[in-house]
Amino acid sequence: MMGDGEPCAGTTVGEARRWATGLLATSSETPRLDAEVLLAHVLGVGRTALLTDRSQCLDPAQAEQFTGMVKRRLKGEPVAYLTGRRAFYDVELAVDARVLVPRPETELLVETALSWARSTTAQPLQVVDVGTGSGALAIVLAKHLPGASVIATDLSGQALEVAAANVARLELGDRVTLVRCDLLACLDGPIELIVSNPPYVPRDRLPSLPADVRLYEPHGALDGGDDGLELISRLLHQATSRLARTGLLLVEIDETQGPACSALATTLWPQAEVSVLRDLAGLDRVLRVELVG
Ligand code: GLN
User: Fold this and answer.
1) pLDDT of residue 120
2) CA-to-CA distance for 150 and 193, rounded, in angstroms?
3) Phi and psi (nearest 5°) for 160?
4) What is the pTM of this model?
5) Pocket lining for ligand 1, CB < 6 angstroms
């Protein structure tokens, strides 16, 4: 808990928040949000409590921890790695430098998957999350599709350790199976629902990514090869022999990749309904391939 309202000899919540916001404005696009998330984490409270308890006092240990985190953030370390957690859809995931920080735009893929899964008659549902990272997609889909069996793959053993911890903490161990594997190579079909947020950043664009992404997040989760499409293309080819006859494939893509991805999908599945969905920023973000039997 925070202090008891006695006059503060050290730093108040309001002062700490102002100091950090001002400092972080030089290096972050979201200085106030960063300051608030870090301060709330150090104090063990929700962000709204910071506004109602502005005159509360940080104890010396809290002040020191907060200062240390703000300095690390100033150098670019992602807030989610500093706090060790990140909210995604309706779960909180443990994250660290072994996995990509889940992004809000990936929630579009979740919503699309859930609305399809709730209307399909295909039962039981086999779901595969390819390149699961922290386990975000597999976990949220398992949580909301109680009848589905979910397999999550990743090439990175370190990522699978993070995913396994999240699966266990959210008590989904009997619903989500983790497998170390190159995309879908170790799995047979038929798979009703294949979802993936693969690495898709074109290699020559990696040096111009924001510093927090470039310097701290795992390149293996970002690097999509020369045109950014290397893994997406391999995934689509692997999926041709595994996607169920009435299945759905959803792949997150870069905003520049919509036309190339829908062209490839149409070549591989001439009978499918192929579309590219836009995220809240209006950018092409998810390739959707629905087989219609
Ligand atoms: N959207 C991420 C970024 O902009 C890239 C994620 C990915 O390659 N899967 O950094």
Assistant:
1) 84
2) 9
3) -65, -30
4) 0.92
5) 103, 197-201, 209, 213, 222, 252
What local confidence, expressed as pLDDT, does residue 257 receive? 97
| Span 92-124, pLDDT tens digits | 999 999 999 999 999 999 999 999 999 987 778
Measured in Å, residue 67 CA sits from the centre of ligand 1 at 29
Between CA 118 and CA 89 the distance in angstroms is: 17
Q: What whole-number distance in Å separates Cα of residue 166 and Cα of residue 94?
A: 6
Q: Which residues are within 8 A (CB) of 264 and not within 5 positions of it... i.e. 6 or more apart? A: 229, 232, 233, 236
Q: Counting atoms of ligand 1 from 1, which one is nearest the CA of 223?
A: 8
Gap between the Cα atoms of 163 and 170, Å rounded:
11
Check if the beta carbon of residue 150 is closer than 8 Å to that of residue 142: yes
Backbone angles phi and psi of 20, in degrees to 5: -70, -40
Summarize pLDDT for 254-279 with one digit per residue, the tens.
999 999 999 999 999 999 999 999 99
Distance CA 254, CA 269 (A): 21
| Residue pair 15/23 in contact by the 8 Å Cβ criterion | no
Q: Which residue ranges of the chain lie beneath pLDDT 50?
A: 1-3
Q: What span, in angstroms and rounded, lies between the C-alpha atoms of 31 and 16? A: 13
First to last CA, the chain: 58
